[in-house]
Each structure stands twice: as C-alpha cells, then as structure tokens.
Amino acid sequence: MKSTASLFRALLAVSMLAGCSSYRPTPAAFHEVLDQPYRLGAGDRVRVTVFEQDGLTNTYSVDQSGYLSFPLVGAIPARGHTAQQMEKAIADKLRQGYLRDPDVSVEIDRYRPIFVMGEVGAAGQYSYVPGLTVQKAIAIAGGFSPRANQESVDITRDINGKVMTGRVVTSDPLLPGDTVYVRERLF
After folding, report:
1. Residue 138 contacts residue 144 (beta carbons within 8 Å)
2. Which of 43, 93, 121, 131 would be 73's cystine partner, CB 3.0–4.6 Å?
3. Distance (Å) of CA 114 to CA 17, 86, 129, 175, 180
4. What pTM does this model have?
5. What Å distances lie between residue 86 and 48, 75, 106, 117, 149, CA to CA?
C-alpha cells in the first residue's frame, strides 16, 4: 500500500511538471505546407506580363487587404492564391470587354519578409529568398548571441489563415512571412 501511494505521488508530481511546460509538438500542417505551391500574401510583389500590352506589363504589390490593384479591372483578390491562379484571374477580368484573348504571365518578384527575434546579433526584418533555412536566417541576423539556445527555435507561421507556432531544428526551411524566435538557453 505504501509503495502504491509513493508511486501515485511520483506520477502526480511528473504530471504537474509536464503541465508547466510550454512546449508543444509541431503541428503536422506546419511541415505539410512546405510541399504545397506558394500562396501570395500581403507584402509580396509580383511581375505581371500581359503579352503585347506594354501599358499593362508591370510590377504590382499585394496590399494589406490581400488585393492586387490592376489597371482597367481594379482590385483582384490575391491573398491565398498561387501565381497560376492569378494569371487566370487577371486574364478573365481582361476578357470582360478589354482584351479579346489576353496572354498573362505572373511571377514572384519579391517575397514578403521574414522576421528574426530573440537571442541573435541583430533582430529585425530580413528579405526572404527561396531555399532559406532557419540557420541561414540566423546567420543573416548576426548569428546566435552567447546566451542563445542553439538546439531548436520557435517559428510562427500563417497556414491557411491560421497562425501556428512550432518548435523546429535549425536545418528546417522557412517560408515568406515566418517569424523566427531564438530562445535563451537555461544553462
């Protein structure tokens, strides 16, 4: 009976300590989004080419509301759409009384920035480039501070309109708009 009570107290203590921990495993959607086509968001800049229409061919930014303001047709929803979906949307709008058979191409000119904060040399906003990993982003931000936890970092990412935070290793890839937080080590 005494050993059962001791075991119960030990399990209770362990469960209470586990409840104090702020660590949660990375959600599955966190890594699944890496294999999906890139979706536009506020702060992205795209190069739209309308074949044989120099007046419409230009670089356009996605505004804070998630719209692309395009000549002749006005605001076109861009947030959450791929470049191919934007090509179709712009062509469809131009077909409505402006051009007979528009040939539209959309490519990403500049991705929205990433943010690095916490125990790094120079926390701040940095340009995203394809292939950027957590380790490279930390290097761009001046490297780890002497107190930094170099094992893993927390990344906050917007996935289909839902903001999620997960703990990842430094070799994980980043996406445009991610926020990297380097924690302080305990010892």
Report:
1. yes
2. 93
3. 34, 23, 10, 8, 8
4. 0.79
5. 9, 12, 7, 33, 41
Tell me if residue 138 falls in helix, strand or coil. Answer: helix
What backbone torsions phi and psi does residue 105 show, to the nearest 5 degrees?
-125, 135
Per-residue pLDDT of the chain (187 residues; tens, 9 = 90+): 566 666 555 555 554 444 444 556 777 887 888 888 999 999 999 999 999 999 999 999 999 999 999 999 999 999 999 999 999 999 999 999 899 999 999 999 999 999 999 999 999 999 999 999 999 999 999 999 999 999 999 999 988 788 999 999 999 999 999 999 999 988 7
What span, in angstroms and rounded, lies between the C-alpha atoms of 66 and 78? 6
Residues in the chain: 187
**CA 125 vs CA 50, 142, 145: distances in Å:** 32, 12, 17
